[in-house]
Amino acid sequence: xxxxxxxxxxxxxAFTATVxxxxxxxxxxYGQIADIVRSRLQQTPIDGDRWMAKRLRAWKxxxxxxxxxxxxxxxxxxxxxxYATYVNEVLELPQRRAVAEAKRLxxxxxxxxxxxxxxxxxxxxxxxxxxxxQEQPGGPVPQxxxxxxxxxxxxxxxxxxxxxxxxxxxxxxxxxxxxxxx
Length: 182
Hints:
3 helices, elongated, mainly alpha
C-alpha cells in the first residue's frame, strides 16, 4: 500500500471503504457464529449440569462473540468517521478559512464605513454650527450669583456669614491663639 495515497481524497476513500467492508463482513460472521454456538451449546449437556446450566454456559460463550460483533460494527463506523473527519478537517479547511476571512473583511469594512459616516456627520454638524451666525441677546450679562451676596468693597462679602460671626476673618492669625513667648 502506498502511504502517500492515503493523503489524497480518492486514496483515503478507497482505504476506508475497504476497511469498512471488511469489518461489516466480520461483524456478520461473528453474529452468525454466535447464534450457532449458542444453539449448539444449549443442546449439548455436560455431565453434572443442573437444569439451567446449559443455557447459562451457552449465553456466556455467545456473549463474547456478540462483543466481537459489536466491536466490528463500531470499527466499520469508525472507518466512515475517519473519512468524514479527514474531509472536514483537511480537504475542506482551506475553503472554510477563505469564507471566514471574506466575512471578517466584510465586517471590518462595514465597521470602517460606519466610523467614517459617524466622523463625517460629526464634522458636518461642527461646520454647520460654526458657520451659522448665532444671535446674542442684548442687554446686561446675567450674573451667576444673586446680588445680595456680592459686596464690591470686601472680597469676604461674597460668602454668607457663618452663624454667630460678626465679621469675616481678615488674616490666618485670627484662627490660632497667640501663645506666650512667641
